[in-house]
Write a structure and sequence with these properties.
The complex is a heterodimer of chains A (348) and B (259). Chain A is 71% helix and 1% strand. Chain A has 348 residues and is mainly alpha-helical. The longest helix of chain A has 27 residues. By secondary structure, chain B is α/β, with parallel strands linked by helices. Chain B folds into two domains: 184 residues, 3-Layer(aba) Sandwich (Rossmann fold), CATH 3.40.50; 49 residues, no CATH class. The chains are: A mainly alpha (348), B alpha/beta (259). The interface between A and B is medium-sized, with 32 and 37 residues.
Chain lengths: 348, 259
């Protein structure tokens, strides 16, 4: 009896190491890449195309990362897209209207002020996250409605602050352009895959992923989403931890707002419009359950990658981009169907 | 055989809106004693459990632990004081592993800076969870297994094992043998006896009266939020216990005889 249990535990370990969902997502990625490459006469499979996919990925990944935490805890955060708009606008506003800087400030000279812009963006996101936490914890509003309110309020505030127009300010587009390994001729082999900003996004994703899967922060997040009553009975301060999760989601959205600012060289009130839907889609495609308790950071990173691979592939193969939303819808439905099937198979 | 009074409830009341769930309940629990708490649905058993475990604030009344007055605003405070509770609706998080559940709220961290940042000593907790559960007499399923993969009996065993291994003074078991087969229920009763032998005060809440009669030293009967009887278990049999719970009798035949 003990022997069979031991073998099972090894199986479990192997499974949790790879993760059903993760291997499936990698397979989906490979198949998509092959299909798109075939239908684009080989042009899809190039460094440039994947660099573009990664640039898009970088814009959305932190929203998906934050959403993953929120969804695992059993909540939802609809405010993330508007938070991107608001934080990019606030960063632009401070630089242009408060500090009186213009788009003349470019390149390395702009780094100091861009660092400040990053901090302002994160702080703006934290404020939205704090409001979400208060609405949910103090006013006892369900997360869907609480974050729907801040979704509207943040979008409106972004328009008011910016006057509805992008606020162009200091910029350094080299931060968003892929870096090539020196000494390798890009015409022979293009090594330009990751921009500095994308690398930062990857690092942040890994760090949050480690806290989710290896640290107490993540354990409590899963515990609350799995059984909030049990979490409270075990002595976890559920409200405090829930507040932390929405604060982190807000801060990550704020940093994504800075990414949007760097990408456009301006704070635009529409830079985050509709992003929340992609963030939720990526999270669900990545295997997280909106019922809480289930989800992995790997899955979310791959889910986001699949979304933008599909988008880019459709563009390259000449399928009208109008189909994009329908394909995304199919992906979400398929992801949830797979989850349900896995649950059935796994159930005893 | 029973020791000093370890946990005392004096005149505790609790209402939910206009519903009076507990109406001036008082009882004493001794160290090394198993106290049975019985009553019909809605008699106030679960409410009393929640007050005792800190999940609910009482509206009135006092709690004394080791003779000192205590007040819980949070389950954490009761846990820290040495009171463990097994709730009727499983107190386990199904998506977490056995060891994560055993150590939930009392995690062990890796050494150094990472530990300060909250990084967990997973291996250590898995090994200790396995060891601790075995020590209280539970055939442990692999402790890195998710609880949702366990059978109902195994889940209950883990939940009880967690409570017994952490409890320092009092352990409250709300329907611990519910939905269990005869063999598994027998194992649970063994664990209860082991907890008693450890000198813990055990509160055993159950609808399964044969289990109550088998394992408890004293029985407290709740009806409509009030404690209507508090007597040694040997004075009850199955019939008198049912009659007492439903209110068809208010005095035990043995008491009448002795008067």
């Amino acid at each position: 009896m003990t022997d069979s249990k031991q073998t099972l535990s090894v199986m479990d370990r192997a499974r949790s190491l790879v993760g059903n969902q993760t291997s499936l997502l990698i397979l989906v990625m490979i198949v998509l890449s092959i299909v798109f490459t075939a239908f684009s006469n080989g042009t899809f499979l190039s460094t440039g195309v994947f660099a573009n996919i990664l640039t898009d990925w970088g814009g959305y990944i932190l929203l998906a990362v934050g959403q993953t935490l929120v969804v695992i805890s059993g909540g939802i955060d609809l405010s993330v897209g508007s938070t991107v708009s608001l934080s990019s606008v606030v960063a632009g506003f401070v630089m242009v209207k408060v500090l009186g800087l213009t788009a003349e400030l470019k390149g390395v000279d702009a780094w100091g002020v861009l660092f400040l812009a990053a901090l302002i963006s994160i702080a703006t996101g934290l404020v939205v996250g704090a409001i979400n936490a208060v609405l949910i914890n103090v006013l006892k509003i369900v997360p869907f409605i609480a974050t729907l309110s801040t979704f509207g309020a943040a979008a409106g505030l972004a328009i008011i602050i910016s006057g509805g127009m992008p606020m162009q300010g200091p910029s350094d587009f080299s931060l968003i352009n892929p870096v090539r390994i020196p000494g390798i001729d890009p015409l022979v082999f293009d090594t330009g895959l990751f921009s500095p900003m994308v690398l930062i996004m990857i690092i942040v994703t890994i760090v949050v992923g480690l806290f989710l899967h290896k640290a107490r922060f993540g354990l409590y997040t899963y515990a609350i989403g799995s059984n909030a009553f049990a979490a409270r009975a075990a002595g976890i301060n559920v409200k405090k931890h829930t507040a932390k999760i929405y604060l982190v989601s807000g801060a990550l959205s704020g940093l994504a707002g800075f990414y949007a600012y760097v990408r456009l060289g301006s704070g635009s009130p529409s830079s985050g419009t509709g992003m929340e839907l992609y963030a939720i889609a990526a999270t669900v495609i990545g295997g997280a359950s909106l019922m809480g308790g289930i989800g992995r950071m790997w899955g979310t990173a791959l889910g986001t990658l699949i979304l933008f691979t599909v988008q880019s592939g459709l563009l390259m193969t000449g399928v009208a981009t109008d189909w994009k939303q329908i394909i995304v819808a199919i992906l979400i439905a398929a992801a949830v169907a797979v989850q349900t099937l896995q649950k059935k198979n796994g159930a005893r | 055989m029973a020791g000093e009074v370890i946990y005392e409830v004096k005149n505790v009341s609790k209402r939910y809106g206009s519903v009076v769930a507990l109406d001036g309940a008082s009882l004493k629990l001794h160290a090394g004693e198993v106290l049975g708490l019985v009553g019909d649905n809605g008699a106030g058993k679960s409410t009393l459990v929640k007050v005792l475990s800190g999940a609910h604030d009482a509206d009135g009344g006092e709690l004394f632990l080791d003779g000192k007055e205590v007040r819980w605003h949070d389950p954490r405070q009761a846990l820290d004081a040495g009171i463990e509770t097994l709730y009727q609706e499983s107190g386990l998080a199904p998506h977490l592993t056995v060891s994560q559940n055993v150590f939930l709220g009392r995690e062990k961290f890796v050494k150094g800076l990472l530990g300060k940042l909250g990084f967990l000593a997973r291996k250590q907790m898995e090994e200790e969870a396995h060891h601790d559960l075995e020590a209280v007499g539970i055939a442990v399923p692999a402790s890195n297994r998710s609880v949702s993969q366990l059978s109902g009996g195994q889940r209950q065993a883990v939940a009880i094992g967690r409570a017994v291994s952490w409890a320092k003074k009092v352990i409250i078991l709300d329907e611990p043998t519910n939905h269990l087969g005869a063999r598994q229920a027998g194992e649970v009763l063994q664990i209860v006896k082991a907890a008693k032998a450890k000198g813990l005060g055990v509160i055993f809440i159950s609808h399964t009266l044969p289990h109550v009669l088998e394992v408890t030293d004293r029985v407290v009967v709740l009806r409509l939020g009030k404690i209507v009887k508090d007597a040694p278990t040997h004075l009850f049999d199955g019939d008198t216990l049912v009659a007492m719970i439903t209110g068809t009798i208010t005095e035990l035949p043995s008491e009448k005889k002795s008067q």
